[in-house]
Amino acid sequence: MRIEEDIKLGFKDVLIRPKRSILKSRAQVDLIRNFSFKYSEYIWSGIPIIASNMDTIGTFEMVKSLSNFNILTAVHKYYSLEHWKDFIRTSSKFILNHVIVSIGTSNEDFLKIKKIFLLSPEIKYICIDVANGYSEHVITFLKLIRNFFIDKIICAGNVVTGEMVEELILSGADIVKVGIGPGSVCTTRVKTGVGYPQLSAIIECADAAHGLGGHIISDGGCTVSGDIAKAFGGGADFVMLGGMLSGHKECSGKIIKDKSNKYMLFYGMSSMSAMKRYEGKIAGYRASEGKTVKIPFRGYIKNTIRDILGGLRSSCTYIGAEKLKELTKRTTFIRVTEQENRIFNVFKTE
Ligand code: 5GP
User: According to its UniProt record, which residues of this chain constitute the active site (predicted)?
Assistant: First the structure.
């Protein structure tokens, strides 16, 4: 046993210090980033926010709405090949540029993804998605995928420490997904005692990835647009969102009507709800590591996205970052013990 004494931080532990700025308006801020990658020769331009590959969030409807904002969606792995055929047939080139195809690490996953990529050369991203990116078989599978899809942008995860980020990048990942336990409907930290505060994970993993020419996605733990700004400030190249995008028309959660109120179910991918839905039951050797929640229905995603992007532009103006790319180098975090003043929150009208 060993104890690491240095402090690890989450989003709630810091604020970003304001800096002198020459920007006159939020409208001057450019949130588009242009990425080139370690292995793939594609260049991708867009706003580096990703809708999570959770089955209620990473839907084809979400891709269609978020591509209007130049934002990516990691499409969940439960769509059949027939669904993919229909989606690709009805989508133009621009929409497909905002798709990430998620897969697990089984032989069937490999066979399916080969068929999906045969449907269109316009899809560029693959995300190998397992809760525990420390498993040896993730590395073996990643190498297989890199050898087969030489030109694609490959993401793999999830991990939270620099040495594993390096191993994934050296094994063929262009982008590493970072986050164990911070998610809004995740109970891994409670069930297992395992995890890592997300901001420190970002800072340490970005350092490791950038040193090798790789990139990272911060996955999980953002609850407000200020957290997204902190994730980018800490060095994340992309930020993945689940809970912040939940409860919208583009989601596939079940709608529940209760008197005059409308709610939507949202659940973790390791929750009882997800396991029952896709496996019929919870295997005897497993425990659920996710929650199911009933949240107020919020209508179309576009209003939420405008709010998030407005918040992010404002973060950039406070620290004088004309482009999102400059946010990291202009960020100084201050450690704090306070965030929002919540005194009137119970009286909120909007
Ligand atoms: P959020 O943005 O909601 O805070 O976090 C979303 C992320 O939580 C997802 O992208 C995924 O990595 C993670 N996640 C989703 N479902 C579960 C779950 O059931 N258990 C755990 N441990 N993590 C989950």
Answer: 186 (thioimidate intermediate)
